[in-house]
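User: Structure tokens for both sequences below?

Assistant:
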Amino acid sequence: MASAVVMPRAGISVESCIIGEWKKAPGDTVALGEILFDYETDKASFECESTAEGTLLECFFEPGDEVECLVAVCAIGQPGEDVSALRPSTSGGNALTQETETKESAAPPPLPAPVASAPPAQTGQTACGVTPRARALAERLGVDPTDAGPTGPRERVITRDIEALAATQKTGTGFGGRTFGEGAPAAPTQTESGAPQAEYTDEKLSKVRVAIAKAMQKSLTEMAQVSHHHSFDAGAILAYRQRCKSAGEALGTGGITLNDMILFAVSRTLAAHPDLNAHLLGGDTMRRFSAVNLGLAVDTPRGLLVPTIFGSGRMSLKEISVRAKELAALAQSGQISPDLLSGATFTISNLGVLGVEAFTPIVNPPQVAILGVCAVSTKVREGKGGSVECYQSMGLSLTYDHRAVDGAPAGRFMRDLCDNLTQFDQLLAL
């Protein structure tokens, strides 16, 4: 009997995924556990392994299609078998999907989404018939998703439906009302003054870039963000880093970096400053956390990702160092679970390795603060007897939500953090 392979759920918060490349074609022999296709979420990419063996009888979706989690994507069995019962139906999904939904219905229903003050008129397609990704795309393109013809499973509107709708409503936005194609350089044209235009190429933003853009814009428009810039004598952490390298082979500490020490110091300092280790919920509720879960900003080929070091306040410096590298590698490979990209109570972003001396990081809501780590530079100060001496200084930039935290508490946190880093050996002894 033919079996269906369903779209995996790549994390508890993921509702749908985009099919990438099929590794097998109809008619190919498939072994149990063999890779069938790759797929991606907004944050990461994965490979789907076959849960059956036999012949790939039919692929129900094509590359680029958005598919809800747990919906059948293909059928595997013996040549000639009927797969009509497994094929996703536009009238209610397939039996496997319905069975899964029945089991999930026993769970408590999710909290209802906030009702918009002025919802668009519904023209045959209700809001529940639009996937979250399609709804976000419709908002970005300025079209009404209820006007789209649904082609997704269970008659839901998916991203390709929104793209098709936008294409039919698109009008020229170039000079003289012209519309330029995407993905290829536009030929030089002339303005009314006769001056030629420069050649250009239009490229769609990646899904990660779109997600980042929306999150950053929302953060800046909904928060009252303020930044403080501090610096401290980095002599102690630089000396400790050198000792770690020297003893690395014997003690396994050679991989400990300055950033790991910052992570460690922040995890300890936050314990005495719960207002910074918190979320602001709904604009009127502060949720202060007893555990410190540090978000670590990681530069990846897909864009900025922020995996979480859970329970960092209870981890040793070496444990933090190892876990930070594991998470960074997962993020950069594109294989990280979405569940590891949430749950942070405070975030750290390090641009010091790029020579940045000061910057204003943007808070990741509902968190109330983020720390920017800056470069080490040489500064001068007055020494003993009025002499002038040079020392190594590192900059730190704290951005916080002034709705939740005032300037004085934020300043005290940074003062304590700088003191802990200046006396790093003593911090390790606590």
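Moving on to the next sequence.
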Amino acid sequence: MVDLGYVGSNQSHLPFVTDLNQVPENRLGPNDAAFRPLPFQTVSGVTTDGIANYHAFQAGITRRLTKGLMFNFNYTWSHMLSNQDSSGWGSQQGATPYQRAYNPMANYGASNFDIRHMFKGHAGYDLPFGRGRKFVNTSKPLDAAIGGWTLFGDFVAQGGSPFTPSMQVNNSYSLSSNALWYPNVAGDPTAVAGGQTINSWFNVNAFAAPTPGTFGNMGRNIVYGPGLTAINVSLHKTYRFSERFNFDVSANAANVINHPSFALPDKLIGPGHVGRITGTSVGARQMELVAKFRF
């Protein structure tokens, strides 16, 4: 069975985490505290100026269990835009950066969840050996050893998530503890000499520090990090001694091909920062053997 479809949504009046007392942009300076709208320091709060929209083309193919084989594969091509992702699930929304607290739409750009391409799937196959199957179906010793096994697998291959580079030192004088100082864009962030590597994922020289007391012209989430690939497999068999007593055996492997999927790079712009990646988003291959007696 093949499925094709379009999914779209538009949301408004979402939470926008911000500083309710940021110094106006035309008043920024070394001694601008007196120009706060209220006679306090940073006033962290939430407005309802958050917006988000999502558009996606989805395709999938499914085979229900027939002759020992079942699978489902799906592909999504999508784009999600927002001015902040404070409405994400729990703490998984990622960073909620802003520069102009009083102008949420200046923060409008790719969402933290904006994965442009995503390919996922899972499959199960009853290996054709043993009692009730096509081969080796008459020998009890061989059936006990190699018969009745089922192989499962799932995988994901997707593009990277966007992130927001920011200046290492904030000389905007905005005084907002949660605000970032966005740099000025002076080149192509993806033009990395020799190509993208974990030692230099994006072109840090494409950004320049704004004049102190001004805001940078860069938008939010304009650079994308590495993609993610993972394949997991499991081999399973159930020994049935009676209607009530069963013995399950399974061998499982996570990230079976031991393929490295890297985390987001260092996002800071400043001396000593070169866009280096120092972590992974998927752990190394892990294998386990599980046995369970069920009664």
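User: Anything stand out in the second?

Assistant: The first strand starts at residue 2 and ends at 19.
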